[in-house]
């Protein structure tokens, strides 16, 4: 059973979806901690309600990002995670955390990457006038939403969409997409080869 730590900064609907999927067996993982960079973030109460330990550290209490990430790593050491799931974690993962957990961090982003990385992905999509957007689950590398892609789900974008209406339509597919991708990670299904993520096992027709 993989030990999972979920990182989140806010509301935590993706975090809660992952925790619930672990609880009912859709993900063969054990959520050992929910970590937030925002003390008091609603996600921490959601974790408490689901019986998952929580921790929070505010970056402003540390002089540098390196010092912050070193403190985060000290917390994580007690939980020995196999996998870190970023779920609305509004912070770029720096080299310190990446060197400790590189290849074992995944993220969900509310666009079809590589379109619209970074903040306000749904607003970017509406303003660009695209007809399709969606969500992407990817391994985390040093860039902003640039790592190898595990899974994507598309939704339509309508001419009268607002940032909020599109965000709602995308969120409706995020949870299932993230659960399925993380379930695969926990089964060691995904293999990263360069930019591409291959499914090692478990699908008829072989390696794709
Ligand atoms: C989601 O849209 C996620 O894709 C993005 O931030 C949002 C977090 O929502 N990274 P929630 O906190 O999971 O409800």
Question: What would you note in describing this structure?
Answer:
With 208 residues, this protein is an alpha/beta fold. The protein contains 6 helices and 9 strands, in the order βαβαβαβαβαββαββ. The strands form 2 sheets. The chain has a 7-stranded mixed beta sheet. It has a two-stranded antiparallel sheet with strand order 8-9. β4, α4 and β5 form a beta-alpha-beta unit. α1 packs parallel to α6, α3 runs parallel beside α4 and α5 packs across α6. It is globular. The model has no long low-confidence stretch (mean pLDDT 96). Bound molecules: 5-O-phosphono-beta-D-ribofuranosylamine. The site of 5-O-phosphono-beta-D-ribofuranosylamine has 15 residues, from α1, β5 and α6.
Trace the largest sheet across and list its strands.
Answer: 3-2-1-4-5-6-7
Provide the residue-averaged pLDDT.
Answer: 96
Bound molecules: 5-O-phosphono-beta-D-ribofuranosylamine
- β-strand percent reads 15-25%
Count of helix runs: 6
**Major β-sheet, in short?**
7 strands, mixed
Low-confidence stretches: none
SSE sequence, one letter per element: EHEHEHEHEHEEHEE
The span between the termini is: 24 Å
Structural class: alpha/beta
How many strands in all?
9
Oligomer: single chain
Shape: globular
Helix content: 25-40%
Radius of gyration: 17 Å
């Amino acid at each position: 059973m993989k030990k999972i730590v979920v990182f989140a900064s806010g509301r935590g609907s993706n975090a809660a979806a992952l925790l619930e999927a672990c609880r009912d067996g859709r993900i063969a993982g054990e959520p050992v901690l929910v970590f937030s960079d925002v003390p008091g973030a609603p996600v921490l109460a959601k974790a408490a309600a689901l019986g998952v330990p929580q921790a929070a550290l505010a970056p402003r209490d540390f002089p540098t990002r390196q010092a912050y990430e070193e403190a985060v790593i000290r917390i994580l050491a007690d939980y020995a995670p196999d996998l870190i799931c970023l779920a609305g974690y509004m912070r770029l993962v720096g080299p310190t955390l990446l060197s400790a957990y590189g290849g074992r961090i995944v993220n969900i982003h509310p666009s079809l990457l590589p379109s619209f990385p970074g903040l306000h992905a749904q607003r970017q999509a509406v303003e660009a006038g695209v007809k399709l957007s969606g969500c992407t689950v990817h391994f985390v590398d040093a860039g902003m939403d640039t790592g190898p892609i595990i899974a994507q789900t598309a939704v339509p974008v309508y001419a009268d969409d607002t940032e909020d209406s599109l965000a709602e339509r995308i969120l409706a597919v995020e949870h299932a997409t993230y659960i399925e991708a993380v379930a695969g990670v926990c089964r060691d299904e995904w293999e990263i080869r360069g930019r591409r993520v291959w499914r090692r096992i478990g699908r008829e027709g072989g390696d794709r």
